[in-house]
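tmp note - TRAP transporter solute receptor, TAXI family
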Amino acid sequence: MKRKLALLTLAGALSVPMVAAEFITIGTGSVTGTYYPTGGAICQMVNKNKKETNIRCSVESTGGSVYNVNTIKAGELDFGISQSDTAYQAFKGEGKFQGAAAVPELRSAIAIYPELLALVVSQKSGIKSITDLKGKKINLDSPGSGTHMTADLVFEAFGIKASDLALANELKVSEGPTMLQDNHIDGYFFVAGHPTANIKDAANSVDISIVPIDGPQIDVLLKKYPYYAKGIISGSYYKGVPNDVPSIGVKAVLVTSTKVKDEVVYQVVKTILDNFEKFKELHPSYKTITKESLLEGLSIPQHPGAIRAFKEAGILK
Ligand code: GLU
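out:
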């Protein structure tokens, strides 16, 4: 009781807003991906301030973007990490989010880092381009992933149907490296921040290649869906992949809902901005990010709490 009083007095003296205890959960992806350690890094920073903010953060490993966005809609997650293409379609009610599945209450907080589509194949599969996929065994990731959604659009651009494949698996991307090693598949898709532990695991157990995602079909796709951008998966990241690989990418966006309090979103974003230099060191995917780039590629409107934090930090005018 005494301690509580002392804390309250201290909070008053420092004019720290005391909100009632808030327990927030961030939906991420599989544990060997990049979302999971990113959610962990954010929660760790948020929890360091829990005495002042009364916000306690925990991370959940999930199937990925589509699951996260749908679960935010259901009110069971407060935050999630989502590909910017998934967030855009959910907000607008396009693709698999049509009609009642739309998530107009979805809001962005920050656009954390770039993600690039990797088509990881075994060298012995002989797959050198997307057009070689016909008759091959490919894992597309689970239907709750953003990866599956992006892979579907790439297939559409190349006029490939799932039925053109010998096997179109929809298992979690975490199974990809083992399935490749056991010859159950010839390759798998993963949209991630690179380098990611999942693909390192695959590269360390099988001779892999990463297939270039380019050509006139991709130029058409980029015109149709302007939230994709060209990018390069560096030749320095994975064993067996010595050259840069062209691909397309999105942003990994921290998303939330209009139903989450301004003060909570404000504190989470403020914590990231206040500890930005330390945050940047936590994963190689953050190498090129800047405080300004956190506002690039948000793809959906920003939550008012996030806007307040960026304005206070002088990044948003
Ligand atoms: N972008 C992936 C997805 O939404 C997840 C990436 C990750 O786990 O790092 O399916």
